[in-house]
Structures are given as structure tokens and as C-alpha cells.
Amino acid sequence: MSVCCAFAKVHEVFDLMALRLDVLSGSEQLRWASFGSDKRRQVFFAGRMLARWVLARRLGLPAAEAPALSLEIDALGRSSFPAWPDLGLSISHSGEGIACAAASGAVGIDIEDLSRPRDFLALAAQVHSSQQCLQLAAQAEDARAESFYRCWTLKEAWLKRQGLGLDLTRMRGLEIEAVDGPASAASLVLNSSQQRWILALEGQELSEGALDLCLLSPGMSGLSALSFRLIESAAAGAAD
């Protein structure tokens, strides 16, 4: 499968386009109105515009035509392009960072701000397997953020690709294998002068050279993507 993916900060999306509710579909406007703060509405709007920009790029359309592309939200909160039902779509945000992916099939994306201070060992006990927790505890403290979030984002991207919400039980039952050959997931770190994010994509098959990554933030670079395959344990699947 081929994947078109983009990353931007919220203010960078607004540098390209002012907030205009008339470009949102009816289902998007209902969702926009449900948020209780202007900040959350801005993040939502920026994500919807970035999704349209990604679709325009994938279709080979000028960026100026992106706002006119239709995007809907169904009763389960899933987003789709009605005119292109075979395209998978996923959107994620963390702090000021927003990421979006459109693919030729179901896809999941997740992004996390690596600068957020957390008790990673305590969090890992909730969402990682016993072996993954032991591996995290054995690492130097300054390496734990990237290691924890790589595991977390890959798992959350997997859940999103399945059309599922956050499920801690299933996350604990997901094993992650690094692979050199065909992969179903990719993880990469995005660097800027002041911040770092980690991004994960999960799809049916991510062939080499199938990822079209566009970083809209000036001065940002992405390290080479690492390839993985996620495997759900039989016990986790039986817990549904």
C-alpha cells in the first residue's frame, strides 16, 4: 500500500488558511461545536485542513483546491473522504503537532511530543507487556521517552487502523517485532531545533518507498523510518 503523510504545527496550518467554518462539512461543524475551548477547536480545524491538503497532494491537485474537498465524520467518529471511499484516513495530534495520513487501504497514524515529562515506567505497566516493561526499565533514563513512545505510538496506530478506540488490554497484548523485510508499521523521529516528535504509521503492508512524507514545518527533519510488524497475542484477542 502507498501512504501520503504530512506533519505541521497548528499555527503553520493557520498561516496557510484562516479559520472558515464554511469549508467544513455538516458533520465536521457539529464536532467543532462540541468542543468547549477555542484552543481545541483550532486544533480540530487544523487537523481537518491538513487532511484535505494530504488528499490534494495524493490526487495531484493544487493545494489551493484542498479546502473544497469533502471530508465527513461518521457516528463512530471515524473520518473519510466520501468521493474516495477506498482511501483510508487517519489524523493525530500532540501538543502543537498534527499528523495526517491517507492511504490505499485502512491506515492508522499516531504522534507524540517527546518533550513531555512522564513517569514512563508507571505508564508502561498499563499498556506494555511484561517483557516490554523489563526492556524499558533496563534502559538509561534519558532513553526511555523515545523507547516508550515508539511502542505506544505503534500500538495506538494499530488500534486506529483496526477502527478501535484506546484499549489498554489489547495494547498490552501487542508484540512488536523489528523487521528488515515486508512490514506493516513504520516509526520515525521528527526533529526541529526546539522540539522532537515520534510518529508511527500502521497499515496492511508498507512496501519500501511507499511512504510520501511531507514536513510542513521549516527546519524540521525526519530520521530514517524503522520497520516493524505488530502481532496480537491470542489471549488479548480473546478478551474482546
Commentary on this structure:
With about 240 residues, this protein is α+β, with helices and mostly antiparallel strands. It has one domain: Alpha-Beta Complex (Ribosomal Protein L22, Chain A). The chain has helices spanning about 10-15, 25-35, 40-60, 120-125, 130-135, 145-160, 170, 235-240, and strands at about 5-10, 70-75, 80, 90-95, 95-105, 105-115, 175-180, 185-190, 195-205, 210-215, 220, 225-230. Strands 6, 7, 8, 9, 11 and 12 form a six-stranded antiparallel β-sheet that branches. A four-stranded mixed β-sheet has the order 4-5-1-10. A hairpin with a 2-residue loop joins strand 4 (about 90-95) and strand 5. The longest helix has 22 residues, at about 40-60. The model has no long low-confidence stretch (mean pLDDT about 90).
Key features of this structure:
240 residues, alpha+beta, 6-stranded antiparallel beta sheet, 4-stranded mixed beta sheet, 34% helix
SSE pattern = EHHHEEEEEHHHHEEEEEEH
Tell me the span between the first and last alpha carbons.
28 Å
Query: What integer is the average pLDDT?
Result: 90
User: Structural class, please?
Assistant: alpha+beta
Total beta-strand segments: 12
- Helix count, DSSP H or I runs of 4 or more residues: 8
What's the arrangement of secondary structure elements?
Elements: E1 3-9, H1 10-16, H2 26-34, H3 38-59, E2 72-73, E3 79-80, E4 88-94, E5 97-103, E6 107-113, H4 120-127, H5 130-137, H6 144-161, H7 168-172, E7 174-178, E8 183-191, E9 196-206, E10 211-215, E11 221-222, E12 226-232, H8 234-238
Parallel strand pairs: 1-10
Antiparallel strand pairs: 1-5, 2-3, 4-5, 6-9, 7-12, 8-9, 8-11, 8-12
Helix pairs in contact: 1-3, 4-5, 4-6
